[in-house]
Design a protein that fits this description.
27% of the residues lie in helices and 32% in strands. With 151 residues, the chain is an alpha/beta fold. It has a six-stranded mixed beta sheet. A two-stranded antiparallel sheet has the order 4-5.
């Protein structure tokens, strides 16, 4: 992993890291932090693809995740390498919102953008006293990245 210097960014947008193995750059990575608690206690729980998914119309968590995806894509878009967006969640309230965003939003301003990021990595740091939990979600390129580099 190699930190990208701010002045090296293309079009004024700079991702955080180049991901490398044996001197070969294989992806560009942006890290977004989810630093505030947005769960308002009105979630409806259901299982979906092995992840817990919570749905609520106009949810602040879903809106926040969508915004972070848009911001991340703007920073990744000018690079030809595979695109990885990492979320670090300090409250354990958002991973289900990412699942909802990626499964449900087909139109509007997030529909096309979400599919242009190859791999989403979610780090759940919200459970005190427990190990961090990792969640992966990706298209075919992202699944290959996970298999090759994130075991």
């Amino acid at each position: 992993m190699q930190k990208i210097e701010e002045n090296k960014g293309q079009h004024g947008k700079t991702p955080d890291f180049l991901l490398c193995k044996d001197s070969l750059e294989f992806a560009v990575c942006e890290v977004k932090e989810m630093t505030d608690d947005v769960n308002d206690g009105t979630w409806e729980k259901r299982d979906e693809d092995g992840l817990q998914s919570y749905e609520k119309e106009n949810s602040p968590a879903v809106a926040k995740v969508s915004k972070k995806i848009k911001e991340g894509y703007e920073q990744l878009r000018s690079y030809k390498l595979s695109k990885v967006l990492v979320f670090i969640d300090y409250y354990s309230d958002h991973v289900s919102s990412l699942n909802h965003v990626l499964k449900s939003f087909q139109d509007g301003n997030i529909g096309e953008i979400k599919n242009k990021i190859d791999l989403y990595i979610w780090i759940d740091k919200g459970s005190v006293g427990k190990e961090d939990e990792l969640y992966f979600r990706g298209n075919s390129v992202g699944k290959q990245l996970k298999q090759n580099y994130f075991r």
